[in-house]
Amino acid sequence: MNRIVAVLGRGLVPADTPLLRADDLGAVRGDGVFETMHVRAGAPWLLDEHLARMINSADRLDLDLPPVTDMIELARQACSAWPHTEEGALRLVCTRGPEDGGPPTVYATLAPVSPKLKTYRAGGVAVATLPLGVTTHARTPAPWLLGGVKSVSYAMNMACQRWAVRNGYDDALWLSTDGYALEAPTSTLLWQVGGELLTTPTSTGVLAGTTARFVLDRAGDVGLTAGEKLVTPSELLGSQGVWLASSVRGLVEITAIDGAALPTAAKTRSLQDLVSYPV
Ligand code: PLP
């Protein structure tokens, strides 16, 4: 299936249609917000949760997001051209628009899930810890650092993933300068200690992951309780399982951290069953 593009107020357009002005602030400043969600059975999964996060991100950037009903309609238009049998990755984008003022630029793209992400569901990922250069609690009292905001400024996130891949890993895991594991550049960290399924508190500035939230809210279904904690990489190595969760990859087991192998996690399959992605 090829990429689908839908534009607010225009509906579906050919995927190669030029959409952004040369001075669009999304392109020249990374000034805008986005959400990516999993499309299954022809519809975006957890759409309400993603839209709520997008509204919050836009508020944090003082950006006027169109009414939520318009965003829902945009998502619906993109999905209308997608086969119900195929999973997909739907991205909703809203930038601040032209530099000299004007309406925000708002569109949706829908594309196949990358084959590499699909292989991670079955085979897991080896991660490299990379320092993020901030202390665990630096971002809470500094809202301008945009902790918890899903802005279109993802160049640093992508640079971390490229560094990891260039050095023989599958992904990166960010560390605070005081030594705690925070999140990955495009996914949330989950881990199991005894009967507890844990994640990093959002007070550290990590993005509030919708997939991890869905899993944590159902931890009881797989015999676990849910909690939040700070964790070091060496504590992760002694845990009963470590995972990355995100909307397009689903739930993926971390098999090694900085080259140190983790024992196979017994709960991977049952946690993956909770989110129902094809494995
Ligand atoms: N953390 C970051 C930095 C992300 O970019 C993402 C998703 O793209 C996540 C966590 C996971 O969030 P979600 O499960 O809502 O996709």
From TrEMBL:
Q: Which GO terms describe its cellular component?
A: cytosol
Keywords, A to Z, come to:
Lyase
What's the top EC group for this one?
lyase
Name the Gene Ontology molecular function terms of this record. Answer: 4-amino-4-deoxychorismate lyase activity
Record carries keyword Transport: no
Q: What is its EC number?
A: 4.1.3.38
The biological processes this protein is annotated with in GO are:
carboxylic acid biosynthetic process
Keyword Lyase attributed: yes
Q: Which family does it belong to?
A: Belongs to the class-IV pyridoxal-phosphate-dependent aminotransferase family.
Write down what this protein is called.
Answer: 4-amino-4-deoxychorismate lyase
